[in-house]
Amino acid sequence: MYAQVTHLRVPEGQIGQLRLFIEKEYLPNVSLRPGFIAAHLLEQIDDLDRAQLVIFWDSQQALENARHTLSLQGSEQSIAARLPGLRIERQGYIVRVTTQPQEAAAVARVS
Q1: Is the pTM of this model over 0.90?
Q2: Range of the domain at 85
Q3: What is the number of domains present in the chain?
Q4: Hey, is 95 helix, strand or coil?
């Protein structure tokens, strides 16, 4: 599994606009791409103008393929275009260790 972490610093007071755009426009486009697993928008509680968007892919290749085939609506540039003054920093990680609650693991083994 591969995780893309995008650090977002929005102009003061615009975190709500970012949240709405991510939820209603950005992630619906990204989630249609092959290899997409899940996404989470994390809003920082001690700095209300910072957030992280974490998107999980089944591989780095799936992310690269998505980046080459996504329209502007599904790209990081679409976020920046929607919120002038937004600062974006993207990082990629290979997920080597993961866990889930025991009940979920048991259900997954039975399925």
Answers
A1: no
A2: 2-110
A3: 1
A4: coil
